[in-house]
Amino acid sequence: MKKAAIIRGDGTGPELVGVTMEVLKAAGSRVQFTVCDAGSEWWEEKKGPSFISDEVWDVLEKSDCCLKGPTTTIPIPGTPRSVAVSIRQKFNLYANVRPVKTFPGQKGPLGAVDFVLVREATEGMYSGIESRLSDDVTVATRLITRNKSTKVSTFAFEEAERRGWKKVIAISKANILKVTDGMFLDSARAVAKKHPGVEFEDLFADNFAQQLVKNPQRFDRNVVVGTNLYMDILSEEASGLVGSIGVVYSGNYGDSYAMFEPAHGSTPKYKGKDKVDPTATVLSGAWMLDYLGEKKEAKAIFDATHKVMKEGKHLTYDLGGKAGTKRMAQAIIDEL
């Protein structure tokens, strides 16, 4: 039997994870779930060097993968690094994947789109290497390695091939960061030579950002790959093309482990208000089932969610509806 750790998270995380578990069970999943707590709310009570306890690390290590609800990262020096970054680095989950695809019945502000963003997720500006040189000067080290650049680029080309798509675009600022982004781009070009059936293009991050709002359909059926910080920001921008960050699900993949999570944050101001869109968490859970081999159950959840979106009767506020978290999730269960 496959095992999955379920981290409830902070803010609205427990609500979103709660309804997601109901959806997964309604779909007939046979995965053994272990629900646990990690994040800033747990840390505020327990303190310690990490947002994740030793007991939860043990659960994670004994699982085949995990689903992480949204968690809060405290932006104060001296506090622990985020739950997501900690898990990515621990299990070497170098590829964060966020599909950006218009849902049935939902009209984005700039028309329908369909592409995938792949983000290197273990290094770059998220390496956490910072220092204070004086009261007025601080420094952050941006770590880029050929190994991780090659791995995430390879994942991007293989993702394009899995989907039957014909183009990969690498994002950089190699004109300014000539050493670090130069290494990333050189690695991507070397991988491209091993995949002659997939076209390769490279764009500067600022150019890509403006094209996302000028002509986003230019990237349809493309896989876009880049380093950690660029792709974190650009994927947030891209989420606006499909209506809301509340519908963007994601997976973090390594060679032998994976973590699935909604792309959005914990929205603590809405905690307990039954307000936040459950779509991203529900579909992250469905993607987890697909990873664990329950492809029929995963497809059923995606199909049910698409029907609810297309019907439009039970949608949350971010999608123009008046339903709460629980009601929208129940609509998905009803379709199942």
What is the strand and helix layout of this fold?
Elements: E1 3-7, H1 13-26, E2 32-36, H2 40-46, H3 54-61, E3 65-68, H4 83-90, E4 95-101, E5 114-120, E6 124-134, E7 137-143, H5 146-163, E8 167-172, H6 180-193, E9 199-204, H7 205-214, E10 222-226, H8 228-239, E11 249-253, E12 258-262, H9 279-291, H10 295-311, H11 325-335
Parallel strand pairs: 1-2, 1-3, 3-12, 5-10, 8-9, 8-10
Antiparallel strand pairs: 4-5, 4-11, 6-7, 11-12
Helix pairs in contact: 1-9, 1-11, 5-6, 7-8, 9-10, 10-11
**What's the CATH architecture name of the largest domain?**
3-Layer(aba) Sandwich
* Rounded mean pLDDT score: 96
Major beta sheet, strand line-up: 2-1-3-12-11-4-5-10-8-9
CATH homologous superfamily of the largest domain - what is it? Isopropylmalate Dehydrogenase
- Total helices: the number is 11
Give the N-to-C terminal Cα separation: 23 Å
Report the principal-axis shape.
globular
Briefly note the structural class of the backbone.
Answer: alpha/beta
Q: Which spans have pLDDT < 50 for at least 5 consecutive residues?
A: none
Report the strand count.
Answer: 12
Order of helices and strands: EHEHHEHEEEEHEHEHEHEEHHH
Q: Helix content range of the residues, please? A: 25-40%
Classify the beta-strand content into a percent band: 15-25%
Rg, nearest Å: 20 Å
| Structural domain tally | 2
The major sheet is characterized as: 10 strands, mixed
Topology-level CATH name of the largest domain: Isopropylmalate Dehydrogenase
Reading off the top of the CATH hierarchy, the class of the largest domain is best stated as: Alpha Beta
